[in-house]
Specification:
The complex is a heterodimer of chains A (161) and B (184). By secondary structure, chain A is mainly alpha-helical. Chain A contains 6 helices and no strands. Chain A has helices at residues 2-19, 30-40, 57-71, 76-87, 102-130, 145-160. In chain A, α2 (30-40) runs antiparallel to α3. The longest helix of chain A has 29 residues, at 102-130. The model of chain A is unreliable at 16-20 (pLDDT under 50). Chain B has a single domain (35-174), classed as Glutaredoxin (3-Layer(aba) Sandwich), CATH 3.40.30.10. Chain B has 6 helices and 7 strands, in the order ααβββαβαβαββα. Chain B has helices spanning 2-5, 8-25, 75-89, 103-113, 127-132, 159-174, and strands spanning 44-46, 54-56, 65-70, 94-99, 119-123, 139-143, 149-154. In chain B, the strands form 2 sheets. In chain B, strands 5-4-3-6-7 form a 5-stranded mixed beta sheet. In chain B, strands 1-2 form a two-stranded antiparallel ribbon. In chain B, β3 (65-70), α3 (75-89) and β4 (94-99) form a beta-alpha-beta unit. The mean pLDDT of chain B is 90. Classes of the chains: A mainly alpha (161), B alpha/beta (184).
């Protein structure tokens, strides 16, 4: 019985928390955009939280600011630009592709290409062996006369010892 | 050639280690400044001392100055305050931005600890704070005579920070070199 009561109370306080911050919009269609923006914007103070999750005062202020800008009919891009102009690119969890981020964005492609290259090298090497022009593909029987001579002399040296 | 190829993994590892080592020295809480090189934002807010008086960017009067973001709830501001007093005594013009604070507490603070500020902007809503990209107090901006932000420091300005980040730039802009003692 006590356990049941505990669980009920637990749900109760979650409800209270969820109601702590009610945002009113003049137009309900703004709400999904608001949620989406808060998910993608980063709290400047707490570093590893987005604006939706963070309880810090600065996040609160920025949430209010985002709401205000939405009401002023700014586009999502304009709101992001507004915040980037003040808080730098840091505030975007999904940074724009530009001079300082191309390597970040490009690295998955680079690694896939490297992987493909490695697979190609591993699986297609045997074909190279069959081609006589390949410098790496020489088997023991294909050594040059000079090499054969050197080998013979080495073996001879060894026998003498 | 083949033998050299054997060193590729080792050199990759060494390179990665170097990058990560350099990363250790960086302060992750320090954000890149979006506003350095940009004009200080326009504003029109009441002054701290008198709610009826509006202060604007015109009050910077085309002088080289520091804008210091502070609040009574900010613990590090206590540590920083003697430095500001010392700089003001040596003729540095400092404008205070009283950030999301209570007017009464802020006025009391200045009475108790001394007032290094030429004037104080009272920004209780943090609107100028958002325009500046303030995310913590204290913050200090060096603004030149053209109203351009030349440097931004997030955190306390003490002797070490002044010498490392401000002194040379301030000397270049004004021709004077205020100094901070070891205790400030």
């Amino acid at each position: 019985m006590k356990a049941l009561l505990f669980v009920v109370l637990l749900f109760q306080c979650q409800l209270v928390l969820a109601n702590a911050e009610v945002v009113e919009f003049s137009d309900e269609s703004l709400r999904p955009r608001y949620q989406q923006l808060l998910e993608e914007l980063r709290c400047p103070k707490c570093q590893n939280q987005n604006l939706a999750d963070s309880n810090s005062p600065i996040s609160n202020d920025l949430r209010v600011q985002v709401q205000r800008l939405l009401e002023e009919e700014l586009s999502d891009q304009q709101i992001k630009d507004y915040l980037v102009a003040r808080y730098s690119e840091f505030i975007l969890y999904r940074p724009e592709v530009n001079q300082s981020t191309w390597l970040l964005w490009g690295s998955p492609i680079i690694f896939v290409l490297l992987g493909l290259l490695a697979i190609y090298r591993l699986y297609f090497k045997p074909q190279d062996l069959q081609s006589p022009s390949s410098s790496q593909g020489q088997s023991n029987s294909q050594i040059t006369p000079q090499e054969q001579q050197r080998l013979d002399s080495l073996l001879a040296d060894r026998e003498q010892q | 050639m083949n033998r050299l190829a054997l060193f590729i993994p080792l050199s990759l590892f060494a390179g990665l280690t170097l990058v990560l080592l350099l990363g250790l020295d960086k302060d992750p809480t320090e954000l890149p400044s979006a506003l350095v090189g940009e004009p200080f934002p326009e504003f029109s807010l009441p002054s701290l001392q008198d709610p009826e008086t509006l202060v604007t960017k015109q009050d910077f009067a085309d002088e080289v100055l520091l804008v210091n973001v502070w609040a009574t709830w900010c613990f590090a501001c206590r540590i920083e305050h003697p430095s500001l007093n010392a700089l003001a005594e040596q003729g540095v013009k400092i404008v205070g931005l009283n950030y999301k604070d209570q007017r009464k507490a802020a006025k009391l603070w200045l009475l108790e600890r001394g007032n290094p500020y030429a004037f104080n902007i009272y920004d209780d809503q943090g609107s100028l704070g958002i325009d500046l990209g303030v995310y913590g107090a204290p913050e200090t901006y060096l603004v030149d005579a053209q109203g351009i932000i030349r440097h931004r420091r997030v955190g306390v300005v003490d002797k070490r920070v002044w010498e490392a980040e401000f002194a040379a730039l301030y000397l270049e802009l004004t021709g004077t070199a205020p100094v901070l003692g070891a205790t400030q």
